[in-house]
Amino acid sequence: MMSNSDNKSIQSQVSRRKRKDQFYHGLMIGLSVITILPVILIIFKLVVEGIGQISLEFLVQTPPDSFEAMSATAAGERIPGGIANGITGTLLMVSVASAMAIPVGILTGIYLYENPKKFLAGLTRNVSDILQGVPSIVLGLIAYLWVVKHITNGFSALAGSVSLAIMMLPMIVRSTEETLKMIPVSIKEAALALGVPYYKVLLRVLIPTGFSGLLTGILLGISRILGETAPLLLTALGSSRINLDITEPVSAIPLLIWEFYNDPNMVDLIWSSSLLLMALVLFLNVTSKQIAKRKK
Amino acid sequence: MDNIKTIKDPVLSIKNLFVSYDKGKYAVNDVSADIKRNSVTAIMGPSGCGKSTLLRAVNRMHELYETIETKGSIDLNGKDIFKMPAIQLRRMTGMVFQRPNPFPTMSIYDNVIAGYKLNGIHLKRSKRDEIVERSLRDVTLWDEVKDGLYKKGTFLSGGQQQRLCIARALAFGPEVILLDEPTSALDPVATSKIEDLMVSLKENYTILMVTHNMSQAARISDYSMFMYLGELVEYGKTKDMFTRPKDRRTEEYLTGKFG
Ligand SMILES: Nc1ncnc2c1ncn2[C@@H]1O[C@H](COP(=O)(O)OP(=O)(O)OP(=O)(O)O)[C@@H](O)[C@H]1O
Ligand SMILES: [Mg+2]
Fold first, then answer.
1. Where are the domains of chain A?
2. Is the pLDDT score of A6 beyond 80?
């Protein structure tokens, strides 16, 4: 038998639990909002401030000089010119960095997947994790020492690409290994049981099966390096004209944002450039999420 | 024990086979047996007795894992399988796994022809079509999929996928087909289709099949092995084994005392 007081205490316990539940529920919502809000505010601000500058001209021309910008602002007009040198520079360096990091990263990831327990694999995994935590400015410094001082004998797109590639590498290594690990062993065994040589199993079965995972890793890697500024200050330096020679200094969208920041007449261009950069990053993120979702 | 360990002109001849995952512990312990050509041989025994391990030794699947050790000999048509290239051996022995595992990126058509495609063996279109149709007809899947050959193989039902996987193993024209509990994930209708299939396939192939299902072994196999703790306890004509088991453990297993 349950006494009356027992019953009451259970009731009060239940209602206390309910209140606790509600409290945590509220807390969760509050914390989620705190997380989401800055992103929304940032995007909102960028669109409001930056959209006015965006036009075809903005994409195909180089920035104005300080005086042109000043007179346009004084006349209340749109600042002329654009950030074509930054766009091409970013594309150039991201492409070169990808061309270096993707093959190396995928091959390393495959090695880790194939030899999970080998000493060298463990070492590689740890070093790759450490690399992921190295501040990007340090990577810039390293690319400066290796490339700027010894290979191109001066600031260059190549040096920038090297620093970005090192940044991208651990992400691709990890995502490749994780993606391959998710493929059921039985798929691999089925292919081998058909008498298919190992490298063909890898190229024709495992990589296609994990393709969307690999692509997701690559896109996230690219979106990660797209906005990097610090290492580029020490390597690519920046350039006021469109340059596609990787041995020469080159501009990049984040570098231009930095330059605009240092010139009071160019403030409006900060917003539009940031908007473009943010749009690119968002696009890559959403695309990679979409690819990852379709896989399931 | 007077197990039939020697059969005239066997497809496979297993002698003193040991397989261990951990040093000194044998998952397959001194197994010797000949497998009769154009017949269905069932491997039975309680869970963990080494059935899959034995089956996977035949196409050298164990070599994929460094820690697994294999000792003893297996001859395929009189030739030592450990002395031939693994690729050649595996092309002569088709394998069907417990769970259907069609290649997820490939269409039904490409799954059937995968043995050729992945190996880079180029066939004329008409020849390919012929192989795909014949293999799918062999597994009684043709009528169900002929209008959607270019759909992904993974869109099929579990039973259809398993028949697709058998078709994939058949398409390459192996001598021996190794099946590891091919019907354990399937419903009775799909199971009975696959059982009928096996009986009809033995005209052209030799079938070695692991099964947990005693009535299935009784229905379709000509020969049966009973394994226990890695050892081959009894091996003989299925009819004899089910009516007059020689070993007490076989009898206990068949009467449901364990397993
Ligand atoms: N990958 C592995 N690593 C270590 N031990 C294993 C591995 N696979 C199987 N074993 C062990 O080897 C023994 C035989 O396993 P096996 O898979 O051959 O059994 P089985 O007869 O096929 O069982 P089931 O009917 O459950 O499939 C078991 O004791 C099992 O624990
Ligand atoms: Mg098994």
1. 1-53, 84-295
2. no
pLDDT tens profile A51-84:
988 999 999 999 999 899 889 888 888 889 999 9
b/e sequence B12-46, b meaning 16+ C-beta within 10 Å: bbbeebbbbeeeeebbbbebbbbbbbebbbbbbbe
B42 CA to centre of ligand 1 in angstroms: 17
Between B257 and B100, the higher pLDDT residue? B100
The pLDDT mean for chain B works out to 92
- Both tokens of B115, joined, read 């043995």
State the Cα–Cα distance between residues B133 and B139, nearest whole angstrom.
10
Asked if A201's CB is within 8 angstroms of B114's CB, the reply is no
Spacing, Cα B185 to ligand 1 middle (Å): 18
Whether A200 has a pLDDT exceeding 50, the answer reads yes
Q: How close does chain B come to A203, measured CA to CA in Å? A: 9
Indicate the burial class of A194 (C-beta count within 10 angstroms; 0-12, 13-18, 19 or more): buried
What homologous superfamily is domain A84-295 in, according to CATH? MetI-like (1.10.3720.10)
Does the pLDDT at position B1 exceed 50? Answer: no
Nearest-atom number in ligand 1 for the CA of B54 is: 18
Q: Are the CB atoms for A136 and A233 separated by under 8 Å?
A: no
User: Which value does ipTM take for this structure?
Assistant: 0.92
With an 8 Å Cβ cutoff, are A194 and B99 in contact? no
- Cβ of B103 within 8 Å of Cβ of A190? The answer is yes
* Tokens (6 digits) for B93: 């022995």
Residue B57 · residue B27 · CB < 8 Å? no
CA distances for B36 relative to B68, B181, B223, B238, angstroms: 28, 20, 8, 13
Ligand 1: residue of B51, B58, B214, B227 to mutate (most ligand atoms within 8 A of CB) is B51
